[in-house]
Amino acid sequence: MGDTLKIVVLVKHVPDAQFDRHIGPDKTLERSESILSELDEYALEAALQVSEARGGDKAGNQVIALTMGGPDAANALKKALQIGASSGVHVADDALAASDAWATSLVLAAAIRNIGDVDLVLTGMASTDGETSLVPAQLAERLGLPQLTFASSLEVTGRSVAVRRDSETTSDVVEAELPAVVSVTDQINEPRYPNFKGILAAKKKKIATFGLADLGIDPAQVGAAGSLTRVEQADPRPPRSAGTIITDEGDAGIKLVDFLAAQKLI
Amino acid sequence: MTASSVLVCLETVPEGGLRKAQIELVAAGRVLGPVSVALAGQAPDTLVRELGELGVSTVYTPGDADLSSHLVAPKAAWIAAVVAADQPSAVVLDNSFEGKEIAARLGVKLDAGVVTDVVALEPDGTAHKSVLAGSYEVRARATSATAVFTVKAGAGEGAPAPAATTAAVKTIEVPADAFERAARVTSRTERPKSGRPDLAEASIVVAGGRGTDGDFGPIEQLADVLGAAVGASRAATDAGWIGHDFQVGQTGKTVSPQLYISAGISGAIQQKAGMQTSKVIVAVNSDPESPVFEIADFGVVGDLFKVLPQAAEEIKRRRES
Ligand SMILES: Cc1cc2nc3c(=O)[nH]c(=O)nc-3n(C[C@H](O)[C@H](O)[C@H](O)COP(=O)(O)OP(=O)(O)OC[C@H]3O[C@@H](n4cnc5c(N)ncnc54)[C@H](O)[C@@H]3O)c2cc1C
Ligand SMILES: Nc1ncnc2c1ncn2[C@@H]1O[C@H](COP(=O)(O)O)[C@@H](O)[C@H]1O
Q1: Among positive and negative, which fits the CA dihedral A110, A98, B130, B219?
Q2: How does pLDDT run across A88-125, given as a tens digit for each residue?
Q3: Looking at the 3D structure of chain B, how many domains does it have?
Q4: Among B152, B156, B189, B264, which has the minimal tally of Cβ within 10 Å of its Cβ?
Q5: Which CATH number covers residue B21?
Q6: Nearest CA in chain B to A143
Q7: Residue B186: inside a domain, yes or no?
Q8: Within this chain, do residues B136 and B243 fall inside the same structural domain, yes or no?
Q9: Is the peptide bond before A179 cis (omega within 30 degrees of 0)?
Q10: Looking at beta carbons, which residues of chain B come within 8 Å of A20?
Q11: What whole-number distance in Å separates Cα of residue B148 and Cα of residue B140?
Q12: How far is ligand 1, taken at its centre, from the CA of residue B82, in Å?
């Protein structure tokens, strides 16, 4: 297929949804028990498949995992390297905490430009903590690249990229020329797990760390100060009041209907 | 932000007139101030009249340009041009994939803060939304001169009644470079519609999970006597028992019907993310330890293959007697 590809995969380090997640008094998310965002595993898998179809690392293709986040976010990169990414880039700076999508996309776009000559940027459909789905479209806008988002399939042929994207009413095929930004849904593939060989190989792979100064970004443009949205209040949803639980003794269907009738739902 | 005027963005409008969701979107805008509309398609007279009745003062159109041939970018470029002409203090879009992505790009073009997934708006621009799979309720706002909101159905509740007017139609040219570097839509297939109510808008949803073991018969039967939409967990859609369109949850649809009946679904956090704001939750599950019972108003520990058909028959019987 000729030329090789340099693919950047965005991976976010997020609190594990299996545990209770909390917003602290400073209105930001408490970042303990964090993992590589599950929805970004699909982007990494897609990147590896595209690379492998062209001979993978051996043939000169690269899959570079990129994250922006505190010191711990390096763990998301390590996991990505174990799964199969070629190298990692970590943008870390104290000023970055509490950045919204606008500030996050500013930094990630600068990091992608800094990596240079990128053919394909792959992201998840949403971060499992922020859940805005804003960052991929903002990256496309900032980088001036075609946007192919919410892809449930992805095909790269030569320098063309085609994805399937479903809306409420239609199923579309969307195409562009590389370089491009693609976000993928959890319908696109089955992400692989790291295996023993991958875990060993990851120890030799490199993670480069950059601060804001390296990217030429003014700290006033990021973090809570630079963000254009502000959370004013965050309250845990009041737990639903305990309901009635019955065990079926042959008439539960009828009792269920009694309940619906009492609630005026039928 | 004190909203002096609001731009509401509408996708193409069906022949029969505005959809319910579009009327609600205009109402959401009205909470913040007087509304103009950016309509990403043609504006027939009947539609302009309908918008006037909703109090819309100006309808902007892109003339004859077809904005749907490419993904998102040209629409965002055109709406940015409308914003430049109209100078609204807030832009309101729907909370679909496309709405959020237009909002995202407007955020960069206008240096505007974007708040997504808004369930309620206040006149001063405070937006309410839930985060972390529905476990927190948050009040947020944009601190920029222009605010961008993507809103869910119902966000316009409490909007002032519209003062009917005659809407002026203005054409705003699509910027010459709007299609440059945009991804082309090379094929478009209409998706089949089920005869049942739409999942996102239905007032009752009956959803099945792995516990159905692939047989959605009891789910569909109960849904049909209730006039309900059918939903599913990801375990059921991943198994191919039912289409992904029916998935409720973090990576499926978010629903908040009057009644959600969950059957053979354990109630994982990602499933709860899509349904825990339902008014009344009923759960049928054979495992008493299932986390779904923690959020159920009425729970049955039992076999869905027995309980659901019995309930469906009982409803029919009561209606007939
Ligand atoms: C990134 C990510 C995104 C996800 N997004 C979603 C999403 O959008 N929506 C979603 O639903 N899930 C989502 N999931 C998956 C989620 O974590 C769960 O795996 C899934 O919801 C489980 O589906 P289930 O409850 O049907 O299956 P299970 O957890 O296997 O539960 C089946 C239940 O059926 C009960 N049962 C079995 N037989 C019967 C019977 N005869 N009668 C009554 N009860 C019976 C069992 O007791 C059990 O509780 C996501 C996961 C990840 C990692
Ligand atoms: N801090 C971050 N570091 C790396 N990638 C990110 C970050 N924030 C968002 N992304 C990427 O953007 C996607 C969408 O995130 P969001 O817009 O926050 O929902 C995620 O799935 C990631 O791929």
Answers
A1: positive
A2: 999 999 999 999 999 999 999 999 999 999 999 999 99
A3: 2
A4: B189
A5: 3.40.50.620
A6: B181
A7: no
A8: no
A9: yes
A10: 135
A11: 12
A12: 45
